[in-house]
Amino acid sequence: MFSIKLLNQSVVLLTTYEVIQDAFTKHGSVMSDRPDIPLFSQVSNRNSIIEQNYNETFKMHRRNGNKIFKGLENTKVSMEKVTMEEAGYLMNYLKQYCGKPIDIKFPIYHATANSVSQVALSKRFVYNHKGFQKIIDSSVAMTEDPTFGKKIFAIIGIPLLRHIPPFRSANQQYVKRTKEIYDFIQEQIDEHIETLDPDNVQDFIDIYLVENHISKTQKNLDFEANADLRGFIKDLFTAGIETVSITINWAIVTLLHYPEIQAKIQQELDSVVGSDEKIRPGHRKSLPYACAFLEEVMRYHTISPLGAPHLTSADVELSDFYIPKNTMIQAHIWAVHHDPNNWPGPDKFDPLRHIDGDGNFVSSKKVLPFSVGLRRCLGENLARIEMFLFIATILKHFHVLPDSGKSLPPLHMGIHGLFYSPFSFEVVLQERSSLI
Ligand code: HEM
């Protein structure tokens, strides 16, 4: 653990699993506020679950969120159903590009965005839908445009920069794009209120409306509840599209570097999943090597190296160190994922680390891409299902090959923005002959 000073803000970096666990779980009630980040709050007014402090309102929203995610299992947009359906669409889309170089990132963005959209709004959009493309572009702009991303990153660190060129225009662009997302979501909420049938709830918004005792006759959500719902859905889009897509992209880059790992996952898939059978989340327990591969991808390419910032709401003592109120706390997830005490030879990519002597997949507490404790990622379940289904479906149907004549995208280097993502690359998909 060590601390630094960023302008007037003290920041403590937690660098071991034990201390992160202690801070966010045992001392979670005083180490789970969020710092106010003016870049975000100028649009959101902190009416978003990610940005809220750990107070009674937040706790209620978080409980609501968990309950709604559970409630979805009884609707036609259960995570399992929507991701399986989307995996089918993704495969059909990719089939059209077999044999040609393709930037796979874009269909992946659409597949992950549709999964969130189905869960939240029970709507999916075709991959070239202009309106939805705009929402995706706005949700992933910081990753897709590294120059923009770097300026935004600088504004997050030094908020005053947002008033000074050239950062001012990046700030304006951020505000414009985020407002587009909010407008899109507001339209969806209004439409849902219009068509709400409490006896036949369709999705996250419907369940939220029913939980808040909204009926068609009553019509309007009060201002606060509306802002909360809009912020919640905005978080699902902004936290749920980029993170899952980037992890899948890293998985693809890794498969290009290790064809033998790709072949091993395909062998496992062939022996477990029948040729006409669709891959289901339930197959995970019979596919230990595929699960170990994804776990190793999340360890090796830690996409959120410092997690999301926390803030102390009171003075606290942690591992014999005194940390005052209003200190920013960052979990150094990358350090835990690359600590040689946890992972011998941490710079080697090796899925077998996550397989026990009997060939079973063992998930380790020390792989913590979703963080731990009271602010742990709310979308972990959805993210894990998507990553598994999309990668397994791609590998069941295609060989993922490098674009010949071009060098492979680097495995050890990427773009450091809000998330750590691979450089742009193209792949060539070849339909697996055994399945034709
Ligand atoms: C590989 C994919 C993902 C990764 C690595 C990831 C990682 C994280 C991390 C590190 C945090 C911060 C935890 C903390 O403050 O300690 C977080 C929070 C959050 N994530 Fe994710 N996430 C992923 C996917 C998703 C998805 C798919 C959704 C929803 C559709 C989602 C929704 C959220 C929300 C709402 C929060 C805020 C929780 C809170 O503030 O209490 N995430 N995520």
From TrEMBL:
User: What are the GO cellular component annotations?
Assistant: endoplasmic reticulum membrane
Name the cofactor(s): heme
Query: Is the keyword Transcription regulation in the record?
Result: no
Keyword Metal-binding assigned? yes
Q: Which residues bind heme?
A: C377
Its transmembrane ranges are none
- How does it sit in the bilayer? Peripheral membrane protein
Keyword annotations from UniProtKB, A to Z: Endoplasmic reticulum, Heme, Iron, Membrane, Metal-binding, Microsome, Monooxygenase, Oxidoreductase
Tell me which Pfam families the record gives. p450 (PF00067)
* One GO MF term: oxidoreductase activity, acting on paired donors, with incorporation or reduction of molecular oxygen, reduced flavin or flavoprotein as one donor, and incorporation of one atom of oxygen
Where found in the cell?
A: Endoplasmic reticulum membrane; Microsome membrane
Alphabetized PROSITE patterns for the sequence: CYTOCHROME_P450
According to its UniProt record, which protein family does this protein belong to?
Belongs to the cytochrome P450 family.
Protein name per UniProt: Cytochrome P450 2U1-like
Which organism was this protein described from? Phallusia mammillata
Lineage of the organism: Eukaryota, Metazoa, Chordata, Tunicata, Ascidiacea
